Amino acid sequence: QVQLVESGGGLVQPGGSLRLSCTASGDILTVHAMGWYRQTPGKQRELVARHTLEGITTYADPVKGRFTISRDNAKNAVFLQMNSLKPEDTAVYYCNADLVYARGFEGVRLSDVWGQGTQVTVSS
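^ that's the sequence the OP posted. Answer follows.
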C-alpha cells in the first residue's frame, strides 16, 4: 500500500516562512513526479508547484519567486520552502505523486496519489 505523509504546516505571520515535507512510503519502484496543491473552502484544488523525474519544475504564478520545491529521490520525498508568505497563501496544502509501486511481481502505476493535507495559516 502506498501512502503520502505530509508535515510542516502551521500558523505564521505575513512575511514569514514555512517548510512543508512529504514522504511517500510503500514498495515504491519509481516516482515520476511529486508536487504540492492547495485548496481553500469553496474553491477547487490548485497546483502550487510540481517537479518531475526529468527535472521539469512548474510553479503557479502567485508563488513564483517565493516558493521553492525540491526533491530527495533517494527518500521519495518532496519539500516546499515557502517564503514571504501572504494571507492569501492560507489553505490546506496537499502532497501529490505520480508513481509506480510493486504489487507482487508487477509494477503498478498510480498517477494521482494524495496526502491527507496540512493546514497553512498566514495571519497576524
